[in-house]
Amino acid sequence: MVEMNDSQKWFVLAFVVAFGCVIYLLAPVLMPFAFAAILAYLGDPVVDRLETVQFRGWRLNRTLAVMVVFSGIIFSIAALLIVIIPALEYQIGEFIDKLPSYLNWINKSVIPVLQKYLGRSIRPLREEQLINLIKGHWQDGGGAAENLIASVSHSGAVIIGWAMNLVLIPVITFYLLRDWDKLMAQIHDLFPRRFAGTVAKLAGEADDVLGAFMRGQFYVMLAQGVIYSVGLWMVDLELALVIGMMAGLVSFVPYMGVITGVIFASMSALLQFQDAVHLLPVLIVFAVGQSIEGMVLTPWLVGNKIGLHPVAVMFAVLAGGRLFGFLGVLLALPVASVIMVLLRHVHERYTFSGFYSNG
Question: Model-level pTM greater than 0.70?
């Protein structure tokens, strides 16, 4: 194991602090690069796999494989924007239109029962105020395309910024995918040779953890979102797509997706069907989805390489968002995974040190 002297340790510490300050100052500019790097990291294993596929002695080169994967990424994003987002907006709009009848049922059926069993008077919901409040917020945030056009039309800088991001992200993603292996080799060559072995070992461990989180968990989130959405649609829940996709997206924290989904789906079912009988199909949907996730999706797509506690995941996301905004949210889990690998390395060295054994 290679040791560093005090001056080298101070140099590394100063470099890390300076690097963090640069990231903090350049966070708005680095956002498209970080997003593109994540897409490239997710797509690189697929590109590597395509390069090994042979058909009658013919094999894809790196550029053609990148073009195939890149086209798939663009198609997926376009499908999200064209199909899923309008469907989400439609379901939320339908829910808001039926909100008066839901609030009226709560005032006439739910509140009297609560008063009877709790022995306390409960103030009825003010339907008009709540409806106006919710509709006002929905009008502010619901018509995404109209509001986006209206807001950016007043600022040429915002228009240029959005346009640059829309152009930069695909371009950067393409070049990172094409040159990913070369970039990793060049980064490895930058380290002093006496540290190369340690760096390679830590990089391999970090890649295992990052692969589990960034690739495996991403696919698990998408699969769970689809399972929950289809299941809730089969039980005729009006907000099936909204609640299903939301539960899938927050499932990167263990059990958070199913807990969030059950709460919102149960509330939606009570308001829509106005009886407790329809809670059973909702619970069955999430029980089946959680079983599939635990027995099939996570062992197959993620494995047991993550090792990040759910509390650490939540702290990383919140801290990253607080320090660096949206860029921090994007980089929170990758950085937390790398830090976890480094801490394991430090802990291993500590337990084998004379200070620990002779204490």
Answer: no
